[in-house]
Design goal:
477 residues, alpha/beta, Rossmann fold, 2 domains, 6-stranded parallel sheet, 19 helices, 36% helix, 18% strand, globular
Length: 477
């Protein structure tokens, strides 16, 4: 099978979150399943600089405000199409915001262009490339199914994956002519969404199949509480909605040979892990103390992630343990954690791949108190690295962590600590439960080893995606 993937970021070329990790890891995981994937991404500076080769396969004399071309290239072992449109993508900042932290004012055009190019490639504008499936990711590629629908020409089947329903891509209806959609598309059964153009809504409306990144999240988003205004449409299309759990790249995330660690280890020599705890304490300016439990956070700082609630537990953590936090996000949350810094509370507000690996290898507990979580990758990395995840029982967190309740401990199957509902009192209670388990060395080692011996790779999920592709194409399993 030949699959065209369309996404706004891809690891290791350009990354702001888990979307890039998934888009970057899935092609390699799908290859053993007989699936050949080529990914279309915008020609950001980082992407253009990383490309090996680069051959023009299509030229647009005028494309959303300037000349553009589609290049075919490789980078870091990934087969790519790159939309080289300097007027849209050759600029500083991350893919979505400028150096001032504000959304680029032309994001509607920038990602409509990505979708338009994706739809054109789907219709075989490149000789010799006729995809069987188009797989689009999140709102930035959400108009691909809409363009294909309104082009009214033969096209491949389309799958839309929702990585986070909270990010929807809504833009003024006045932009409809500018992005190349007719007035007839602006209806409830089209791209119209509460008086705006809904990029993600368009994907959910017109994709042949809809996936989310965990089974529980697929059910949650059909409920009004977490459907973000799209639950009605999702319930209407429930027969084509499914959840396929994310994995992680277990070559990139491997404590046995991770270049970012002070010491390598596996589940058979957990003692060596202590050197990473010491290195993390030194790196973050915390007192070196092997006895105090070290809590870690690697996260966007946002309401979704529950970090406002976690901040209220910092006096407890500081009195009995330590916290190492890495992340960036909402200014008020950054300020709250800045003000909470102390001898035992250390925070760094940025993205740092090396430090993220060291936190996973050095923290005793990895905190993920999310109000909602489509899948979550940080808890999967924690399992792999022997950091015990303490998570809210939502979305993919519920699907990946076995709570250390009495029955699971007795059966020897527990891998972490879950709590529900998501509020300050329950987070504090879960932290106290983690403290009790931490001081029971045999129980703690069991949690660590159970997590490290589990399969958090892409292997199972890749097979599920391949099976879905075959189902759409009505091919034998």
């Amino acid at each position: 099978m030949l699959v065209l993937s369309v996404a706004s970021e891809i690891y290791p070329l350009i990354k702001t979150g888990g979307l890039a990790d998934v888009v970057g890891a899935l092609p390699g995981a799908l290859a053993p399943c007989g699936v050949n994937t080529r990914t279309l991404v915008p020609g950001y500076r980082a992407v253009m600089n990383a490309m090996e080769g680069g051959e023009t396969v299509h030229h647009y004399p005028m494309f959303f405000g300037g000349a553009a071309q589609i290049l075919t290239a490789t980078a870091h072992g990934l087969d790519l199409f790159v939309l080289d449109a300097p007027h849209l993508y050759d600029r500083p900042g991350n893919p979505y915001t400028g150096p001032d932290g504000r959304d680029w004012p032309d994001n509607a055009e920038r990602f409509a262009a990505l979708s338009r190019a994706g739809a054109d490639l789907a219709k075989a504008i490149m000789p010799g490339f006729t995809p069987d499936i188009v797989h689009v990711h999140d709102w930035q590629a959400g108009l691909v199914p809409a363009y294909l629908h309104y082009d009214r020409s033969r096209h491949p089947a389309c799958i839309a994956t929702v990585h986070n329903l909270a990010f929807q891509g809504q833009f003024p209806a006045s932009l409809l002519p500018k992005i190349g959609l007719s007035s007839e598309s602006f209806e409830v059964g089209g791209v119209e969404y509460y008086g705006t153009i809904g990029y993600l809504k368009a994907a959910l409306q017109f994709a042949d199949q809809i996936t989310t990144v965990s089974p529980t999240y697929a059910l949650e988003i059909m409920q009004p509480e977490w459907g973000m205004g799209l639950d009605g449409l999702l319930r209407q299309r429930r027969s084509v909605v499914s959840g396929i759990l994310n994995g992680i790249d277990t070559e990139v995330w491997n404590p046995a040979n991770d270049i970012y660690l002070a010491a390598h280890y596996d589940d058979k020599n957990l003692e060596a892990r202590a050197r990473n705890k010491m290195a993390l304490q030194k790196r973050m300016g915390l007192p070196v103390d092997s006895a105090r439990p070290l809590f870690g956070v690697v996260s966007r700082l946002s309401w979704q992630k529950g970090l406002d609630l976690l901040a209220d537990t910092l006096p407890l953590i500081s009195s009995v343990g330590q916290l190492a936090l890495l992340g960036a996000g909402e200014p008020q949350l950054e300020e709250k954690y800045t003000n909470a810094r102390s001898q035992n509370i250390a925070c760094e507000f940025r993205y740092d791949e090396a430090l993220a690996h060291l936190i996973q290898a050095g923290a005793d507990v990895l905190l993920v108190p999310s109000r909602f979580e489509p899948c979550g990758l940080t808890q999967l990395c924690a399992l792999r690295y022997g950091a015990v995840p303490l998570v809210a029982r939502v979305g993919g967190l519920a699907d990946t962590i076995v709570d250390a309740n009495e029955a699971a401990l007795a059966a020897g199957t527990a891998t972490g600590i879950q709590f529900w509902p998501v509020n300050g009192m329950m987070i504090e209670a879960a932290i106290r439960r983690a403290l009790r388990l931490y001081h029971d060395k045999s129980a703690w080692a069991l949690l660590q080893r159970n997590g490290m011996r589990g399969d958090v790779s892409w292997q199972h999920s890749a097979r599920a995606y391949a099976a879905l592709y075959r189902e759409i194409l009505q091919l034998p399993a």
